Prior knowledge:
49% of the residues are buried. The chain is α+β, with helices and mostly antiparallel strands. A hairpin with a 2-residue loop joins strand 9 and strand 10 (216-217). The strands form three sheets. It has a four-stranded mixed beta sheet. It has a four-stranded antiparallel beta sheet with strand order 2-3-7-6, with no helix packed on it. Strands 9-10 form a two-stranded antiparallel ribbon. 52% of the residues lie in helices and 12% in strands. The mean pLDDT is 93. The protein starts with a helix and ends with a helix. The protein has two domains: 2-172, no CATH class; 181-335, Up-down Bundle (Butyryl-CoA Dehydrogenase, subunit A, domain 3), CATH 1.20.140.10. It has helices at 2-15, 18-25, 31-39, 58-70, 77-89, 181-210, 222-245, 255-280, 291-303, 308-322, 327-335; strands at 99-101, 106-108, 114-119, 127-132, 135-140, 145-148, 157-161, 169-172, 212-213, 216-217. It has eleven helices and ten strands.
Amino acid sequence: MDMLTEALERLFRERATPEAIRNIEAGGDTAPLWAEIADSGFLDILLPEDDGGAGVSLDEAFPAFMLAGQHAVPLPFVQTVMARAWLHALGVKAPEGAIAIAGPETVRLADGSLSVRAVAFGKTADWVLAEFDDLWVALPTEAARVEGDQARGSQTADLSWPSLPRTALIVSQGEGDVCPPAQLAAASLTPLLAGAAHQALDMTLAHVAERQQFGRAIAQFQAVQNQISVMAERVWAMRMAARMAFQAAGPMPAFGMTAIGKTRCSEAAALVADIAHALHGAIGITEEYDLQLYTRRLREWRRAGGTEAWWARRLGRDVIENSKGSALDYILSCAKV
């Protein structure tokens, strides 16, 4: 896995540069960067070796997936990798192109229209994998009305279709030994949140060590040290929670671990972003400075795939219904799934 992570790190460092991200945010062509990712062979790492994959488990893939968050990759790399493995488990050939995954905010009306809200990478994906009650389907974005998030540079979008597109790929009617798409969406966002938070912390540590005030680095002031300690605690809690969501021997995340991971990562994301900007001062909100590339993603991905409140309610119900011991017993039971 070290070789895999190193190769992916090099790819993102050279191709998913801040300049490339800003270009895509401004409406630039996503095809060159996606072609680089697709040609690298990383999209099928979760598939079995006999089927052209690398046979990597979610747990083993986690460090590589975190890199996408650390580099603020503006395309649904993690989602596509996980969706392709999910489709393979259902015996369905994955469509070509980038695949985003919708969270729980989906609606299917009596007139046949379909809509999904707050889809991470909804603006840059070719397909959206979504769940409408008993209908699981991959919908082409080219046939959709796409309404972007109002936040500047956001790649999150609401999408709607007047009817089920002819080119839609119906992948299941809710059957099979796989998790629901909304659960897959939540799990896929946890390493991105953890990665973006880690990058924001690294940038903040570098800034407070260099920034001088009253003749010394501001990192030496107790108030700054307190804020850094709070930020670091949240960042590492996010990483641990995201890692829990990926504690699976195969390609499918467990429900309990996913709920814990998304709840904790989303809950901490806003505070991490706030502290990063507070310690950077005015420079942190400028267009030229790269911090905003990561803090904006933290706020986007916090909501996408279900907010912390939504997943906390689901988690609470599951604990009440299925737990027969302590909270630790519940977590351990989830880890055995």
